[in-house]
Write a structure and sequence with these properties.
The protein is α/β, with parallel strands linked by helices and 305 residues long. The protein has helices spanning 39-51, 79-90, 121-138, 152-162, 183-189, 208-221, 235-244, 255-266, 272-286, 296-304, and strands at 12-19, 25-27, 35-37, 56-62, 95-100, 114-115, 118-119, 142-145, 171-176, 225-229, 249-253, 290-293. The protein has one domain: Aldolase class I (TIM Barrel), CATH 3.20.20. Helices cover 40% and strands 18% of the residues. Strands 1, 2, 3, 4, 5, 8, 9, 10, 11 and 12 form a ten-stranded mixed beta sheet that branches. A two-stranded antiparallel sheet has the order 6-7. The radius of gyration is 18 Å and the shape is globular.
């Protein structure tokens, strides 16, 4: 009766990886319980997810081919565009959110156009906006830019508005840190940089005040939801965001956080259900309204059982 914070399935967003092929459900070795799905298998998974009460999914695409400009990211028949159309037919009430970035689609693994070993921010904005628009045209309910280029929220907002998608919201990866917790995801998405790292455009981990600045800029540019990523080691940033901005706050319980718990649970070192529930509760307590987590399906099953 006096509990201050509760975690509900309604608070969760479930990330899913979609790849080309037919009848594909391929286990990701570094992320037990997480899979690559072909579009047909993704629809079956989404039906089960919706039946568990999970309200939303976040899609990441695995292309067949990559190039320097990440062309499949914004192709009309790209893997995400195909997946969105299929999901909206199969499970129309499920909220479909799309990750907007180029790193999965570029041959060099960086999130933008590269020239002379440097990522070119301003020229990348056009491709990021083009990608978000292609997702909206395919039927995405929300777009989530994760590239961390300066000015990308405004570029996306303008592109969407010009084409009649004024009501398509933007969930911005507003405070995305250059973290060591992303390793399993990069394995899953095949998007590790082929040279250097992403510290030139992702945030430096010790910088708390800079995170507030980045979030404020995204809100000013039109972000409807702002996200902190990773979550577990950045509870102070989530709390700062909650105290500073009157918009919904999302926290990304990232791949490294998920895989550490899975590995410890498989060894019998921790009780998975207890520790996952505690972690998700701590993110809500810090101020997150929404949590993106690979544990969403497990948690929903526990609640239903």
């Amino acid at each position: 009766m006096v509990r201050e914070i509760n975690v509900s399935v309604d608070d969760l967003i479930y990330p899913l990886f979609v790849a080309h092929g037919l009848d594909v459900k391929l286990q990701i070795p570094s992320m037990p319980g997480v899979f690559h799905f072909s579009v047909d298998a993704l629809c079956k998974e989404a039906e089960e997810v919706a039946a568990l009460g999970i309200p939303a999914v976040l899609l990441f695409g695995i292309p067949d081919e990559k190039d320097d400009l990440g062309s499949e990211a914004y192709a009309n028949d790209g893997i995400i565009q195909r997946a969105v159309r299929a999901l909206k037919r199969a499970v129309p009430d499920l909220v479909v959110i799309t990750d907007v970035c180029l790193c999965e689609y570029t041959s060099h693994g960086h999130c933008g156009i590269v020239r002379g070993g440097e990522v070119i921010n301003d020229e990348t904005l056009e491709l990021i906006a083009r990608t978000a628009l292609s997702h909206a045209e395919a039927g995405a309910d929300m777009v989530a830019p994760s590239d961390m280029m300066d000015g990308r929220v405004l570029a996306i907002r303008e592109a969407l508005d010009e084409r009649g998608f004024e009501n398509t919201p933007i969930m911005s990866y507003a405070a995305k840190f250059a973290s060591a917790f992303y390793g399993p995801f990069r394995d899953a998405a095949g998007c590790a940089p082929q040279f250097g790292d992403r510290s030139g455009y992702q945030m430096d981990c010790p910088n708390r005040r800079e995170a507030l600045k980045e979030m404020a800029l995204d809100v000013e540019e039109g972000a409807d939801i702002i996200m902190v990523k990773p979550a577990l080691s950045y509870m102070d940033i989530i709390s700062d965001a909650r105290g500073s901005f009157d918009v919904p706050i999302a926290a990304y319980n990232v791949s490294g956080e998920y895989s550490m718990v899975k590995a410890a649970a498989e060894k019998g070192y921790v009780d998975e259900r207890g520790i996952v529930t505690e972690i998700l509760t701590s993110m809500r307590r810090a101020g997150a309204d929404l949590i993106i987590t690979y544990s969403a399906r497990d948690f929903a099953g526990w609640q239903a059982g």
